[in-house]
Amino acid sequence: MRLTWAQPEDLLAHELVQSAAEGRDVAGIRDRWADAGGDPDPAVSGAGPVPATAELRGLARALLDELAALPAPAAPHEPDGWDAIEALLPPAPPPRAPGGDRADRVRGAWTGRAAGCLLGKPVEKIPREGIEEILRSTGRWPLDRWFTAVGLPGDVAARWPWNRRSAPTSLEENIHGMPEDDDLNYPILALALLERHGRGFTTDDVAQLWLDHLPAGRVFTAERAAYRNILDARPAPETATHHNPFREWIGALIRTDVLGWVSPGDVRGAARLAWTDARLSHTRNGVYGAMWAAALASAAMVHRTADEVLDAADAVVPPHSRLAAAVRLGREAAREGDVRAGLDRLHAAYGGLHWVHVLNNAAVIAYSLARGAGEFGPSVSHAVTAGWDTDSAAATVGGVVGALRGADGIGARWTEPLDGRIATSLPGGEQRIDDLAARTVALAATTGTTERSTP
């Protein structure tokens, strides 16, 4: 058995990249690893192609510890503590009263998140050029509907294989409800968190809920590392840093939509909840991504346009952070030229990052929201054809636009195949979207938006 996102030899290659990004001098450790026969280049998937020997694995563990002990330059513009983060933020915009039918917005958010995720599932991890070739060869370029294997030439299928787990349930010819996905498991888990603890939940409460409800085999990247650290009795926020090179990836961003949906118009309050959750597994920009996603979700409950949502969410991101720069780039690219030119610009800036990193995917989310201008199909399609983490980016985009348009405004093409159902690997099994929406509305009505969560 080769466990993904966990083997020391795989973690080391990713940690060399992450530590370098944090300003550590990793050259000597990288050379020692390569001289010993280790591969210093991270695998695209969760595990490298060649199993390590016991000796090489032992060296990887030792070098991970050495990397952690290396000094890193101070990063005053990218702090981890809430007080230090809040001190950098502009004045919080006053909470805005919900507009329109709140229940319909929440149903639209859940439905849109599911539909966006489902659209991106079969091509997760396939690069941008492969996605385009698949679509052109099946007569579906530019993307405006579900992917299909009907008419897909064998050589194209071999060159760009579908996501193995997702294709049997996420192609047009076989969709029957929303299949299980971590991008929907986490929002469902967030409902349970709030129902159990309210807005005063702590990071330890999040960890306990993971142990109680979240199958270890259905967590990935930073969450898998944090899960291991929880079981090793490491306290937060050490859970986010010990042998966790994925700490600035997208995992925390996909967990926080519900925290925004129950905080309509209170983007700062939503961001504080997201920080409490995210610090279990992420640092710096990985945490800011979660805060930003929660703020997007919060703003989508009360505003009318995607640009208004993006403007409101800017208020929770440290302005000189790398995440803020990624969001700005995404919005700027959306205003210039055609879609290809805009996505070219994003890939020129972030093409060297792993496909699950938070920065490239945040730029895609910002681009897709701004370029899609509140239209559901174009917005989620841009997020998918951009490549990188297609299902996660499109899920976030779909949740925002779904809230703006309401459930009926998404369009039957995207809603009917879902049949109002979401499968999950969490306790309780399959969920109805209407039930999840009702629980979300009840939480927004009863938990309030002013109580502060604590670590």
From TrEMBL:
<keyword id="KW-0326">Glycosidase</keyword>
<dbReference type="Pfam" id="PF03747">
    <property type="entry name" value="ADP_ribosyl_GH"/>
</dbReference>
<dbReference type="GO" id="GO:0016798">
    <property type="term" value="F:hydrolase activity, acting on glycosyl bonds"/>
</dbReference>
<dbReference type="InterPro" id="IPR036705">
    <property type="entry name" value="Ribosyl_crysJ1_sf"/>
</dbReference>
<protein>
    <submittedName>
        <fullName>ADP-ribosylglycohydrolase family protein</fullName>
        <ecNumber>3.2.2.-</ecNumber>
    </submittedName>
</protein>
<dbReference type="InterPro" id="IPR005502">
    <property type="entry name" value="Ribosyl_crysJ1"/>
</dbReference>
<keyword id="KW-0378">Hydrolase</keyword>
